[in-house]
């Protein structure tokens, strides 16, 4: 497959899909959290595919690798915030488990893309 745009990258597509799920799930969080944990979770989730897109658009392998690292950091931040959301009773265990599995898969995809780009250097 020819990658002409970040939109062609499966890792970006999976990231955007996760964002949609995050927004759907956080709708049930208490309204008192709209400027707290809800906002932080949504921003971290949005940051993952956004940094993939920005890095790809920069046109440099080195910068793309840098932005993939930022995406991985945002993904770790998202996982932490989801665990906190579960601990304070906003997420059921079954929902948390599914989201963490998706985060793990997305992390594997990001690291695989990093390795691929590094091996081409």
TrEMBL record:
Residues annotated as signal peptide: none
Classification via InterPro entries: 23S_rRNA-intervening_sequence (IPR012657)
NCBIfam families, per the entry: four helix bundle protein, PRK12275.1-2
Protein name: Four helix bundle protein
Species per Swiss-Prot/TrEMBL record: Geomonas oryzisoli
